[in-house]
Amino acid sequence: MTPVILSTQDLTAQFGAISAVDFVSLEFRQQQLHAIIGPNGAGKTTFINLLSGELMPTTGTIHYLGKDISQLSADKISRLGIGRSFQKTNIFPTFSCLQNCLLGAQSRLPHSMHFFQRASRLTDVTERAQRSLALCGLSDRENSIAAMMSYGEQRQLEIGMMLATEPQLLLLDEPLAGMGTIEAQRVIELIQALKQDHTIILIEHDMQAVFVVADRLTVMVNGKVIATGTVAEIRANKMVQEAFFADEVIGDD
Ligand SMILES: Nc1ncnc2c1ncn2[C@@H]1O[C@H](COP(=O)(O)OP(=O)(O)O)[C@@H](O)[C@H]1O
Ligand SMILES: [Mg+2]
After folding, report:
1. Ligand 1 closest atom vs CA 203
2. What pLDDT, on the 0 to 100 scale, is given for residue 121?
3. Are strands 59-64 and 67-68 parallel, antiparallel or unpaired?
4. Which parts of the chain sit beneath pLDDT 50?
5. pLDDT at 110
6. Per-residue model confidence (pLDDT) at position 253
7. Biggest alpha carbon distance in the chain?
8. Which site among 124, 129, 210, 250 is 20 to 30 Å from 165 CA-CA?
9. In this predicted structure, what is the pLDDT of residue 238?
10. Cβ of 17 less than 6 Å from ligand 1
11. Cα(122) to centroid of ligand 2, in Å?
């Protein structure tokens, strides 16, 4: 097995009386695609918000490459190489695709550099933005205004913006949400391509897609992890079937 890239220890997020994430201890390994599944309200998005620094834990810790990152801001975590996409699309609608990715690429520069950008540095950033557009399959849409594109393309662009930060670990929150079959297939192929040189934590509702792309699966219910294992192990797990899956979803094809 590859080394652990990120781990959580008793990670907890409480909102009033609700423990959205309830003492979760998990390990994620380098170069694996580890999917987190579970019914609505299970705490999946909250878990990603904790990892990305959008939300501070109530208790517990997060280690990334051996370093405790639990108290770091989202900005600092992004600079360490952790990129995230949002369940709801989070692009700048009036900007072009390239401009959206430029914003992503620039966010990786140290703050002081924003004032002293030399031409070479700008070329660097532009190249990085163009590379990320190519990676997410939108190189022919450089100058298209984001709002004018299809919903599926907007979700692709959001992945492009994240890639422009050159992350090593990708946190993807329901990247297929709201997509038609053809668009979803395109994004599944994109995720499979990204798997080659990224570690991915994927939240996804579409079970068939998850079973195809995931190396490991964790099932969350009511803020708690109820099972972690390979796709075959999770499909066979009786407790998981009872707690979460309809038979037709988990059954063999
Ligand atoms: N900012 C918040 N304030 C209060 N409750 C929240 C907040 N965010 C999420 N929750 C609650 O935490 C639980 C888990 O939500 P969420 O992480 O969005 O689940 P999932 O992504 O698995 O559908 C839900 O009961 C939700 O209502
Ligand atoms: Mg969610």
Report:
1. 21
2. 64
3. antiparallel
4. 112, 247-253
5. 58
6. 45
7. 60
8. 210
9. 85
10. no
11. 36
Q: Beta-strand (E) ranges in 38-134?
A: 59-64, 67-68, 82-85
Beta strands 18-29 and 4-15, pairing class: antiparallel
Q: What are the residue boundaries of the structural domains of the chain, listed by start?
A: 1-81+168-253, 90-166
Ligand number with the minimum distance to the CA of 46: 1
- Contact 83/170 with Cβ under 8 angstroms? yes
The atom number, within ligand 1, closest to the CA of 87 reads 21
Torsion-angle region of 251 (φ positive above 0: left; ψ -120 to 50: alpha; else: beta): beta
Domain spanning 1-81+168-253, CATH class: alpha beta
> Which ligand sits nearest to residue 88's alpha carbon?
2
Of 109, 12, 98, 106, the residue nearest 62 (C-alpha): 12
For 108-132, write each residue's pLDDT tens digit: 665 545 555 555 566 788 999 999 9
